[in-house]
Design a protein that fits this description.
two-stranded antiparallel sheet
C-alpha cells in the first residue's frame, strides 16, 4: 500500500439521499441520509474507491450506519403522534 496514493477520506453525516459522482473516479454512486464516505475537502466517494484508499473507514462505515439508524429509531419512538 506504500506505493498507492492516499486521499484524506472521512465519514461524515449526509443530509440527503442522491445520486452523485464519486470525487475520485467520477462514477455515479448513490449516497443515503446518514454516515457516508467523503473526501476531507468535500465530495462523496464511492464504496470501491473507499476500499482502495481507506479500507479501514469502509470497515467501520456499516457500524456507523447501523448506530445512526438505531439512534433515529430511539428518537422517533419518543415522538407523540398528532391528532
Amino acid at each position: 500500500m506504500a506505493d498507492r496514493k492516499r486521499f484524506p477520506l472521512i465519514i461524515k453525516y449526509n443530509y440527503v439521499s442522491e445520486l452523485v459522482r464519486c470525487q475520485l473516479c467520477a462514477t455515479h454512486t448513490s449516497i443515503e441520509v446518514g454516515p457516508e464516505l467523503f473526501r476531507e475537502n468535500g465530495g462523496a466517494v464511492c464504496h470501491e474507491c473507499g476500499l482502495l484508499y481507506a479500507p479501514e473507514l469502509v470497515e467501520v462505515l456499516p457500524h456507523a450506519q447501523r448506530l445512526f439508524v438505531e439512534a433515529c429509531g430511539q428518537l422517533w419512538s419518543h415522538e407523540r403522534q398528532m391528532d
